[in-house]
Design goal:
Strand order of the largest sheet: 1-4
Bound molecules: zinc ion
Oligomer: single chain
Largest sheet: 2 strands, antiparallel
Strand content: 15-25%
Distance between the termini: 17 Å
Helix content: 25-40%
Structural class: alpha+beta
Length: 136
């Protein structure tokens, strides 16, 4: 696997879309029962206004078990070098990526990607990034 492809996969897995619950506003209005409206942080996106575009392609980091940190012999926590503290790593299975995107792309783009997947992984991920408008 080339380094460039890893960068592409990471950029794709990091890509976000507007949170459907708060519509990107980061907050939701909740009726408190007494007829008053309260502004709460959106729980779906944790107040960021964005959710992952491709949730399926994030796999729990096998090195730190999703924690993001590793405990050293002396008891100190160090940042996990496999996932850089994210707790997840991008899936290395191209078919998983294909499955994750085939629902959000139109038929022409899906057909193009299913050809690209046979041509090579680098070609596939490049085509995927282009179809989704993601840049590394
Ligand atoms: Zn939200
Ligand atoms: Zn990790």
């Amino acid at each position: 696997m080339t380094n460039e492809m890893e960068k592409l996969q990471l950029a794709l897995a990091m890509a976000g879309k507007e949170c459907p619950t708060c519509e990107g506003t980061r907050v939701v209005r909740v009726c408190d029962g007494g007829g008053d409206w309260q502004i709460w942080n959106c729980e779906v996106c944790h107040g960021t206004g964005k959710v992952p575009l491709l949730e399926l392609v994030r796999e729990k980091c096998p090195r730190c078990g999703g924690y993001g940190f590793l405990t050293e012999m002396g008891g100190d926590d160090i940042l996990c070098s496999s996932c850089q503290g994210r707790g997840w790593i991008p899936s290395t299975d191209p078919w998983k990526w294909f499955e994750a995107v085939h629902k959000i792309l139109d038929a022409t783009e899906v057909a193009h990607l299913s050809w690209a997947i046979w041509e090579g992984e680098q070609i596939f991920y490049t085509a995927l990034a282009k179809a989704l408008g993601v840049r590394e």
